[in-house]
Every structure is written in C-alpha cells, then in structure tokens.
C-alpha cells in the first residue's frame, strides 16, 4: 500500500511539474513573440516618422520640501512653455533625435526662435544635426528646477525595445491593461549592466520600467522609465501614446516627468503633444 501511495504521489508531482514547465515555456514563448513584434514596430516607427514636427505644451513646477513643512502647497515656481518638438531619425545611431524649439514662455513669445527649426533643416550642407543640437542646448535655459534635458523626451524608452538593444534588458510579463479601449500586455523591464543606454555626465545609469504592448502587432501604447543619477536624483518619465489620424501612427500624446532630489525638493513636468505634421522640403534630407 505504501509503495502504491508513493507511486501515485510521484506521478502527481511529475504531472504538476510538467504542467508548470509547460506553462513557463508557453509564457516565455509568448513573451519572445511579443518582444519580436514590439522590436519590429519600434524600428518601423522610426522609419515612418522620418522628419516630423509637433506642437508641445509643457508645464514645469518646482516643489520645496521646506515649503511643504510650512503647511503651504509646496510649489515655489511654475512655468508654461510652448514649443515645436522635432522628431528625426538618426539611422547610424539607431535613435531618434528629439529637439525642442521654444516659441513662448509664460505667454510671452520668443521671436528669435520663430521658424528656427525650418531654417536649420533647409540650410544646405550636412551640418544640420549640429545646428539642431545647438537649438536644443540653447533652449534648455528656459527650464526651471532640475530638469535633465537629455532625458525629458517622450520617445526615450522606445529605444530599449528596438532589436539592437533588447539583449541589454530583461523582460517579464506583468498582466494586461486597456488603453484607448484596447487590451495591451504589460511588460516589465530592467537593464542588465553597463555601459548603460542612458548616461548622465558620462556616468552609467541603469533603467527599469514598464511597456504596454499590443499583442496583435507590437504597437506600444505607453512607456515608463525610472533611474537614478550619480548625484542621487531619482527620475521617472511616463509617456502615453495615441493613434494620430492624419499620420496613421501611434504618437506621443502626454508625458509626465518627476525629478526627486535627496533634499526632498522635486520638479514635476507635464507635456502634451498635438498637430503632428511632416516637415516638407524640396531637397533630400540626409542624416549624418
């Protein structure tokens, strides 16, 4: 009788283990297929975007820990910035170049920046990438608080799922969520090591976060990324995407940023995007 019971128990354990292993293999296969579709989607989005300009409304607020302790709201500074946001593909680097050109600050126009993007793109020669980077660097002076201009872009996390970068991250399935009425798979990720994709002041910062990926075609509807700078600042960036009817692509619609300092002070930002349009030029734009 004892041998019979032990034999049955062993059989049950074997069946359970086989079922667990089968389920794990199925989840692993489902995740691999999902990431393959997401990688193709992200790479295709880069190609389809080409050179696209959008309108950005950007609010920045600085919060003081000291002010909060005094029972006030804690907000000590606020700024509203209206800009053009340029998305342009850099094939050689497998990334998008994302440039802000500030047009108005707290309702006051910046006349010297009017049509500055168009002029930089239309000028002859191959130096337009340097010109665009100069525009972005100069426009950083309108930021308040501790905003890291090299990270505050809505397409930042899309880079992590492109085929050439996926091996640098670990991914796990984390359930489902509905976005715009559609089901998306939630996929957690974290960076495996250095050199990291994102660097701050030439120092490595490893990233972690979540991606919302549509099962059928790999469309990415939302991203989040979190990391800490070498100075101890914690940064969190979440981007929501929606389908743009005119271009037929899922494009950034809303981005939230949070920058928390060791002192307890913080900077929060909220950006919204609209009026996506392709940059039209009579010449061929060659990315260097």
Topology, element by element:
Layout: H1 2-49, E1 51-63, H2 65-69, E2 75-90, E3 95-105, E4 108-109, H3 116-122, H4 128-139, E5 169-179, E6 182-191, E7 198-200, E8 203-205, E9 208-213, E10 220-228, E11 234-244, E12 249-260, E13 266-278
Antiparallel strand pairs: 1-2, 1-13, 2-3, 3-4, 5-6, 6-9, 7-8, 9-10, 10-11, 11-12, 12-13
Quick tags:
288 residues; alpha+beta; two-stranded antiparallel ribbon; 25% helix; globular
Describe this structure in words.
The protein is an alpha+beta fold and about 290 residues long. The protein contains 4 helices and 13 strands. The strands form 2 sheets. Strands 4-3-2-1-13-12-11-10-9-6-5 form an 11-stranded antiparallel sheet. A two-stranded antiparallel ribbon has the order 7-8. Strand 9 and strand 10 form a beta hairpin. The protein starts with a helix and ends in a 10-residue tail after the last strand. The C terminus is likely disordered.
Structure summarized in a few sentences:
With 288 residues, the chain is of the alpha+beta class. Helix content is 25%, strand content 42%.
Mean pLDDT: 83
How many individual β-strands?
A: 13
SSE ordering: HEHEEEHHEEEEEEEEE
Overall shape: it is: globular
Helicity, as a percent range: 25-40%
Largest sheet: 11 strands, antiparallel
Tally of separate helices: 4
Q: What is Rg? A: 23 Å
Poorly predicted sequence stretches spanning 5 or more consecutive residues: 11-26, 282-288
Spatially, the strands of the biggest sheet line up as: 4-3-2-1-13-12-11-10-9-6-5
**Percent strand:** 35-45%
């Amino acid at each position: 009788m004892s041998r019979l019971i032990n034999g049955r128990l062993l059989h049950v354990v074997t069946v359970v283990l086989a079922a667990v292993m089968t389920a794990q293999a199925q989840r692993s296969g489902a995740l691999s297929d999902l990431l393959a579709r997401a990688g193709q989607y992200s790479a295709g989005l880069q190609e389809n975007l080409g050179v696209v300009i959008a309108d950005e409304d950007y609010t920045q607020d600085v919060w003081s820990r000291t002010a909060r302790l005094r029972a006030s709201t804690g907000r000590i500074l606020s700024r509203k910035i209206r800009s053009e946001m340029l998305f342009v593909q850099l094939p050689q680097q497998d990334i998008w170049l994302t440039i802000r050109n500030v047009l108005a600050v707290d309702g006051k126009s910046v006349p010297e920046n009017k049509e500055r993007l168009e002029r930089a793109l239309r000028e002859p020669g191959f130096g337009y990438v340097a010109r665009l980077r100069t525009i972005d660097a100069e426009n950083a002076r309108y930021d308040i608080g501790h905003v890291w201009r090299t990270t505050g872009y809505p397409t930042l996390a899309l880079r992590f799922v492109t085929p050439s970068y996926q091996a640098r991250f670990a991914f796990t399935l984390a359930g489902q969520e509905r976005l715009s009425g559609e089901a998306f798979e939630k996929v957690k990720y974290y960076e495996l090591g250095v050199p990291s994709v994102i660097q701050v002041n030439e120092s490595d910062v490893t990233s972690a976060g979540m991606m919302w990926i549509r099962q059928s075609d790999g469309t990415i509807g939302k991203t989040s990324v979190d990391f800490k700078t070498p100075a101890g600042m914690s940064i969190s960036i979440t981007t929501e995407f929606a389908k743009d009817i005119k271009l037929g692509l899922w494009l950034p619609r809303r981005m939230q940023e949070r920058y928390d300092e060791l002192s307890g002070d913080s900077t929060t930002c909220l950006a919204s995007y609209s009026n996506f349009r392709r940059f039209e030029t009579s010449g061929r734009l060659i990315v260097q």
